[in-house]
Every structure is written in C-alpha cells, then in structure tokens.
Specification:
Elements lengths: L1 H20 L6 H56 L2 H20 L7 H20 L2 E4 L12 E7 L9 E6 L1 E4 L2 E4 L1 E6 L1
Parallel strand pairs: 2-6
Antiparallel strand pairs: 1-4, 3-6, 4-5
C-alpha cells in the first residue's frame, strides 16, 4: 500500500505543479498548430524586414533626389545672379556704341566741346556700371586673327597691309558678360 500511496502523492504533486504552471497536456495536432503559428510569425517577420529595407531604399532615393534638386536650384540661382543682367546689357550696348560713333565723328568745334566732354563722362559712367555688372568690351586689334567665337566677319576686303584671315577694320565692338559673349565684334577681314 505504501507504493500505492506514494503513487497517489506523486500524482497529486504533479497535479499541483500543473495547476501552478498552468500546463495542460497537449495533443499531437496542437503541437503542429503551434509550429504553424511560429512559422507564420517568422514569415511575417521576414516580410516586415523586406518591407523595411524597401522603404529605407525609397527614403534614401528620395533624400538623394531632394539633395540633387536643391543643388540644381542653387546652381540656377548662381547663374541667374551671374547672367541676369544680360538682357539689359544687350539692349544698352547698341545705344552706347552709337553714342561713341557719333562722338568720334563730331568735328572739333569749340562751341560744343563742353557738351562732348559731358557725353564722354556719361559714357564712361555707363561703361563703369556695365563693368561692375560683369560686362566687358572684347579687345580687338587690327592684325589679329579672326576668332569666330568673339568676332563676326561682315566683309572680306583686299589688303596690302594684312595677310588673309587678319582683321583689317573693327566696325563695332564686341562684349562679354563674365565669360559669355553677348555681342560679337563686327570686323572686316583681309582676303
């Protein structure tokens, strides 16, 4: 009987431990169900990791795209500041050139000498303002080679003084805005 009593005590102890641990005996199907749930969670976790990496990649692309857009706008702003006065300069230059040619062709008359000096001072001030804005006159000398990037050959003429392709006359000055030609110098070239 002692064995029977010991067995009952062990079974009672087992029941007490089961109740404390809240453990129920499992059937084979339930174990498979639990494994199935674990597998589902693992798959869901893998999907979440994949989605996270895709979202991170999309975020990095968006950040790079935004940085490129900001750089492009900054570069465009620099160009606008640098070349923004081009239209005004191209409209002023023909009037200034005409003013210069009129002053050169005016005879030396003492009655208008003071006016001419005043006009020259005005031209110098306009030249200084254009220069401050980055506009400069292209220096073209007689005998220079024709450079199509800065010169516009309007005529070829016979010349005993210059060889073929050399500039024999400057008809109108050329101008640059910083490094950009805004008006080509009109020249005559030796045949």
């Amino acid at each position: 009987m002692a064995n029977k009593e010991e067995q009952n005590n062990i079974l009672n102890l087992f029941e007490i431990i089961k109740k404390e641990l809240n453990v129920e005996p499992t059937k084979e199907g339930e174990e498979k169900q639990e494994l199935s749930n674990i597998e589902k969670l693992e798959l869901e976790f893998a999907n979440l990791i994949d989605q996270n990496s895709k979202l991170e990649e999309a975020r990095l692309i968006a950040v790079a795209d935004t940085q490129n857009t900001v750089k492009r706008f900054q570069n465009e702003a620099v160009l606008v500041r640098k070349y923004g006065g081009e239209r005004l300069a191209t409209e002023l230059i023909p009037a200034i050139d005409m003013f210069r040619s009129v002053l050169k062709s005016t005879p030396d008359n003492p009655e208008i000498k003071n006016y001419l000096m005043g006009f020259e001072m005005i031209i110098n001030q306009i030249d200084q303002a254009l220069n401050n804005a980055g506009v400069s006159m292209i220096t073209t000398n007689l005998g220079d080679d024709l450079n199509p990037e800065i010169h516009n050959a309007i005529e070829q003429v016979e010349s005993n003084d210059f060889t073929t392709g050399k500039i024999v006359a400057v008809i109108s000055n050329g101008y640059k805005l910083h490094d950009r030609v805004i008006k080509h110098a009109a020249v005559k070239v030796a045949k």
